[in-house]
Amino acid sequence: MLSELVIRDLALIEHVELSLGPGLNVITGETGAGKSLLVGALELLLGTRPKPGLVRQGASKCTVEGRFVVAGGSAGASIARWARKYGPELLDEWRASGPDEERELILGRSVGNDGKTRAYVNGRPVTREALADLAPRLFEIHGQNEHQRLHDPSEQLRLLDGFGKLENQVGAYRIAREAWQRLVDEALRLEREASERRDRLDLVRFQLSELQGAAPDPEEKTRLAPERELLRHAASVKQGLAEALEGLADADQAALDRVQRAQRFVDGWKAQIAALEGAGTDLDAARVHLEDAVRALRSLGDRLEIDPRRLEQVEERLAELERLERKYKTDAQGLISRRAELEAELARLERDESSQEGLAERVAQARALVLERGGELRRARKALRDKLVPRVAKALKDLGLENARFDVKLGQRGEEDGISAADAADRVALEADAQRFGERGMDRIEFLLAANPGELLQKLRAVASGGETARIMLALRSVLADAGEARTLLFDEIDSGVGGRLGPAVGAHLRKLGLHHQVLCVTHLPAIAALAARHLKVQKSVEGGRTRTEVGELRGEARVLEIADMIAGGAQQETAKAEARRLLGPNV
Questions:
Q1: Is 303 exposed, middle or buried (0-12, 13-18, 19+ CB in 10 A)?
Q2: For the chain, what is the mean pLDDT?
Q3: What is the distance between the alpha carbons of residues 500 and 526, in angstroms, rounded to a whole number?
Q4: What is the pLDDT of residue 49?
Q5: Distance from C-alpha of 563 to C-alpha of 576, rounded to nearest angstrom
Q6: How confident is the model at residue 98 (pLDDT cuts 50, 70, 90)?
Q7: What phi, psi does 297 have (nearest 5°)?
Q8: Once rounded to an integer, what is the mean pLDDT over residues 523-543?
Q9: Domains and CATH numbers, the chain
Q10: Contact status, residue 12 vs residue 538, Cβ threshold 8 Å
Q11: Contact, 6 vs 65, CB < 8 A?
Q12: How far is CA 25 from CA 55, 520, 553, 584, in A?
């Protein structure tokens, strides 16, 4: 609901603040007083391109601000969808309130005298395109403008579904479509990655085979490096060992023999010569160490072989390990980790290969459910057409358009179904189904109208203009009043070509529509003005040689005088005032 409209320096308007309420709000005033400026101000909030000369003379810019109170539920969800696209900060604020709580939005637009415009929502700058996407979610202008959501076939489809209370069926279709879409996305991903996946599979299998065959051990290099050094110098080591053993134990006068003779000498005299006790102990220890060393050297000499083949094997193994470490840029432990990663990746890639093979059947099953749910929606909508058309025809007749003909054209999205289950996951089939399966079903609808006898039925936007359009929209909105989200509806020139006889009928439809939507109506008919919950009057005044347009709310006797003036052009005529009071009834 539009609760407040603030306009500054717009043509003849210097500063106007309007407070609006629920139900029917009427705007009256003499021709030329500036009622069209209020319509123009709201058109600016719809994102329309400004006309030249909008800025009041002497001002640098004009501004329009609309304060809207937005209910929760589907209306709040619509604003949240907008915020996800254009205003993440606003989305955070939006989510801070409960889903059913009312929220406030302030839409603003300024136009400089250089023609440049700025748009903002809740004080934050937005593009004109973002404002033009948001504003129609809050209000519509029915008149000579083209910015009417009711012209949009997608809005017509939502209203038709709301008229028939089909949201549960639409929800069931959407669930089926989303499940199908997830499988389609997976199928397209697998197909898109198929070539790359096959190449990757070949590489992963090769690398995994390489690492599995190498079977690296973190301690292996530590063991093999010393063995390689020993094998490389086996001949010289063996010769050195022989010479060492020769000097220590095998030759005449070898070191071990000399130590043993010395130890026997000391052992024979240490009882008589106490000073030899320590030397005897040291010689005994030296003998033991020498014997241990000789055994170790002899054991190594016995085991050591000059084995070129083993050396070649060790060299090759170390070279292989070093090559793998260079290739994979890691150490032996890293090679083991890499092998585990490749095993996991291979399992995933092979699973994707297998998934692609079995996905076609799942896509076909999900598609069949979408077709079933979509078919149920189509049948329900066809039945609704037979209910909606006569009701709109009656409303048109009530509003003086008895010769107008209304119809609902039901068509289908995309081509006829010629896709077999076997082909359901084929790329061409998926693209065709993506066109066919819309968010609200498989149907396209179009409201058609012939405004006069002898004319062909045409799309709604092409058949009427001015007040005729406003009355057509009122007829449709009256019948579909509780079918869509509540919003503010402005009817401009709705009384164009309407005489006093039709005024009460038009007013009754507007007041009834006001039970579901906030309605603003610019009118010259007293019968319409008298039915409003709130009455605003636009008038011009001259002060200091400057003309300005002012807007004020009428109540009590002031409203009686305005209605009387609309009846007879003379607010002081007693008969006119009496008729005004009759029309107003309890609304005085």
A1: exposed
A2: 82
A3: 9
A4: 87
A5: 8
A6: low
A7: -65, -40
A8: 89
A9: 1-144+514-553 (3.40.50.300), 555-588 (no CATH)
A10: no
A11: yes
A12: 27, 5, 10, 14
